[in-house]
Amino acid sequence: MELAHHRDLAQEFPEFKARIHELKLESPVFRGLYAEYQVVDNEVYRIEQAIETPSDDYTEELKRRRVLFKDRLYGMLTGRIPAEYDSDEFVVRRKFAQPVDPAAVTRDWIKRGFSCRACTDPPGQVWRDDVHDTDELVTVVDGCLEVMMHGENWVLGPGDELYLPRGITHTVRNLHAGTTRWLYGYD
Q1: Which end of the chain is more exposed for a tag (fewer CB within 10 A), N or C?
Q2: CB-based contacts of 142: which residues, under 8 Å, 6+ apart?
Q3: Domain count, the chain
């Protein structure tokens, strides 16, 4: 017996109901991720209904995974994350050729509806617990950044692009022994 999804994507994002249907038909990657989301959501629902009673740590990890799936699916629905290839991350590795041309990144992001601003961080710089009302993109020009969100860490090198969903708390840290130059933009 399959339980009703109390956090079904069509209910969570009613404005994307048609797009959800399209991607389920067109994209095996989206379809697989959507199925994984439903399995995790069903398990959380069974726990919340006291049908199952696992440990609190397991329940919290399951809820964290559900949020991670939901954010990735939302990124695919909005086109911020490509639905054509499987990735376990929010990162497109080597999206931009090296050496990274900030003007090329700016043109790409503007076409996708994002702003583009530059940031230069000294060694050890940390931006803790940022959260924005908009989606954000980050690309390293030179150096190395670590971005933490959802309890996961992503290390970005030159040309990598990271998608940060709106409303997600994240921390950015310069891992490079020298200065790291990077770009960020909001939609």
Answers
A1: N
A2: 99, 100, 158, 180, 181
A3: 2
